[in-house]
Amino acid sequence: MSSINYTCDLRLAATRALCDALDCSLINFKDETERNRIIKALLKTSASKEAEIKYAAFECLLSISSTCYEVLEPYMQAIFDLTINAVKCDEEVVAL
């Protein structure tokens, strides 16, 4: 396995792990610094070139928005831009 694939696999696993652990990490969303770190990492991951990683990041953003929507206001424009780009340009699995 090349280092590029390993990095993609690791990024995918980390994104899925964050999504799976959201119930445990909701307290981090009360702290603005922690919230910024998490959301910015997810936004960066949502712009990934790998469809599977991008899909996992959007799933995680969806989970966050369903549990703590009120803290997402500062990130709405970035989320909107990424979503529009996914619908217009990405593979069908991501666009859905």
Distance, first to last CA: 30 Å
Tally of DSSP β-strands: 0
Sketch the topology as an H/E string, one letter per element.
Answer: HHHHHH
Largest sheet: none
- Estimated share of beta-strand residues: under 5%
What best-fitting shape do the alpha-carbon axes yield?
Answer: globular
Structural class: mainly alpha
Mean pLDDT: 86
How many helices? Answer: 6
Radius of gyration: 13 Å
Which segments are poorly predicted (pLDDT under 50) over 5 or more consecutive residues?
none
Percent of residues in helical segments? over 70%
Layout of SSEs?
Elements (H helix, E strand, L loop, with lengths): L2 H18 L1 H4 L6 H15 L4 H18 L7 H14 L2 H4 L1
Helix pairs in contact: 1-4, 3-4
Walk me through what this model shows:
It is a single chain. The chain has 96 residues and is an all-alpha fold. It has six helices and no strands. Helix 3 runs antiparallel to helix 4. It starts with a helix and ends with a helix. The mean pLDDT is 86.
Which features would summarize this protein structure in a list?
about 100 residues; mainly alpha; 6 helices; about 0% strand; globular
Can you describe this structure in just a few lines?
This protein is mostly helical and 96 residues long.
